[in-house]
Amino acid sequence: MKKIFLTIFVSGIAISSFAQTKKPVAKKPVATTKTAATPIVLKSALDSVSYAFGSSIGASLKTTGLSTMNYDVLLKGLKDAFTNGKLILNQQQAQQCINEALTNANKSKFTGNITEGKTFLEQNKKRAGVKTTASGLQYEVLTAGTGVKPTSATDSVLVHYKGTLLSGKQFDSSYDRGEPITFTLNQVIKGWTEGVQLMNAGSKYKFFVPYDLAYGERGYGPDIPPYSTLVFEIELLKVNGK
Fold first, then answer.
1. Catalytic annotation on 88?
2. Which among 38, 109, 110, 203 could bridge 199 via Cys, Cβ 3.0 to 4.6 Å?
């Protein structure tokens, strides 16, 4: 049942986004009063199951964040897929269309997070002591160490850290757990991969990480919403090497 629903859903939404329809020719109105649409009466089991599938697809589409559809073209896509008709989009085009539509719909729900992050970073980079790299990563040296630096993203390091949202809400801390962590620099978010390589062992930096260098459009778990700019205090205790 799930496979059937997914095939209908993917084909329908893909066709709806790219198919072209002719513009209707304007006609003079023949009446000045509006008439109500004729209600659909479910007269058979086929009518009922058809409506059930339609409402199920509609409910699923609504959860994606999409605000509207071209319903006539949606039905056309559904019919073409169901009856093995000639599809206007191939599978790759359909998937690309769906991915772009869902990304844009998701992004629109978190415009506030994006705006908050951009505004904060624009103001923060003006503060004395804050430096900005070419990628947009911002950092502030809290303690300057004199030890060795990591030489590449394949190096393993030992760090203590604390992470917060721009609101100041803490979502993680190795200090609270009482134990530093070891990781390879190419196995963490981009902001850490780049930022920790700027540090000498014994240093403590504060990093201001744009969402695209953090957890991006998906966020992470219940505590880091999508498109969140994050703040980390990182203490580089040791460079373990490769």
1. no
2. 203
Residues 122, 63 share a domain: no
Residue 205 a catalytic site member:
no
Domain-located, residue 34: no
Closest by Cα among 182, 126, 108, 107 to 150: 182
From the candidates 18, 57, 120, 189, which is the catalytic residue? 189
When divided into structural domains, the chain yields a total of 2
Summarize pLDDT for 32-43 with one digit per residue, the tens: 455 566 788 999
Is 94 within 8 Å of 15 (Cβ atoms)? yes
232 is catalytic: yes
Identified catalytic residue from 161, 207, 211, 227: 161
171-199 pLDDT, tens per residue? 999 999 999 999 999 999 999 999 999 99
Measured CA to CA, the distance from residue 241 to residue 186 in angstroms comes to 13
Q: Check 18, 88, 172, 220 and give the catalytic one.
A: 172
* Residue 161 is among the residues annotated as catalytic for this protein: yes
Residue 242's pLDDT band, with cuts at 50, 70 and 90, is: low
Q: Which of helix, strand or coil describes residue 190? A: helix
Whether 227 is a known active-site residue: answer: no
| Residue 159 shares a structural domain with residue 199 | yes
Q: What is the pTM of this model?
A: 0.68
Considering the domain architecture, whether residues 226 and 129 belong to the same structural domain is answered as: yes
- Range of the structural domain that residue 156 is part of: 112-241
Catalytic-role residue among 9, 139, 208, 215: 215
Residue 9 falls in the annotated catalytic set: no
CA dihedral 64, 113, 224, 218 (to 10 degrees): 40
